[in-house]
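Cross-posting from the chemistry board since nobody answered there.

I work mostly on the small-molecule side, so proteins are not my area. We synthesized glutathione and want a rough idea of how it might sit in this target. Sequence and SMILES are below. Is it possible to get a predicted 3D structure of the two together?
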Amino acid sequence: MSDLILYHASPSRSSIVLWMLEEVGAPYHVKLLKLSEGENLKPDYLAVNPMGKVPALKHGDAVITEVAAICTYLADEFPAKKLNVPVGTPLRGIYLKWLFFGPSVIEPAMTDRAFPRKEAPRAASVGWRDFDTVLDIVAKALAQAPHLMGEQFTAADVVIGSGLRYGMMFKLIPERKEFLDYAARIAARPAAQRAAAKDKEMSAA
Ligand SMILES: N[C@@H](CCC(=O)N[C@@H](CS)C(=O)NCC(=O)O)C(=O)O
């Protein structure tokens, strides 16, 4: 068995890591969990991820959770694929900014919009801005270059690109031209297509 094991529910946020693993090209093994049957909340899986969420990635003895952390890790662990911006490169800071921007800014702003609270949080007290401001920032970056880091496709595109694709699919993110063009560009990547085909097969099984 491969020493990379993805705990996956098909389709879900762990599909993002499935795509990342296809980009990396190293052999991996998938352990499928059925969220609808609560398999993620059973003791066996809680021993892997006590939060009972997917994805989790086991690499040897290490268990990594959180989509963005896993994608950052894989990009650094398999540098030959040039999906990272290595330590020592000035642009690495920008790359990390985008990797953190997904889960800590876009996702909460999208959740605010999807599940409005009775009382809006104080803008200065939360770590993100309102939905429109956040999306304008991403759209501006994508209007200037094919990828978040310019010509180079990186793990940041896997994380943020997946968020935009799923967001538009579930009508949580507006279909702005910048997002549609970007989503089409990254979905056409052979690794993204392989991951989508595997996911289709797994969710049908
Ligand atoms: N912050 C986590 C979120 C993971 C997450 O919410 N996964 C969902 C699937 S999309 C899940 O496991 N839901 C099952 C549950 O909450 O019981 C990450 O980025 O990896």
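Reply from a structural biologist on the board:
Welcome over. Reading the output above for you: The pocket of glutathione is lined by residues 12-13, 35, 40, 52-55, 66-67, 103 (CB under 6 Å). The CA atoms of residues 43 and 81 lie 36 Å apart. Happy to explain the token format if needed.
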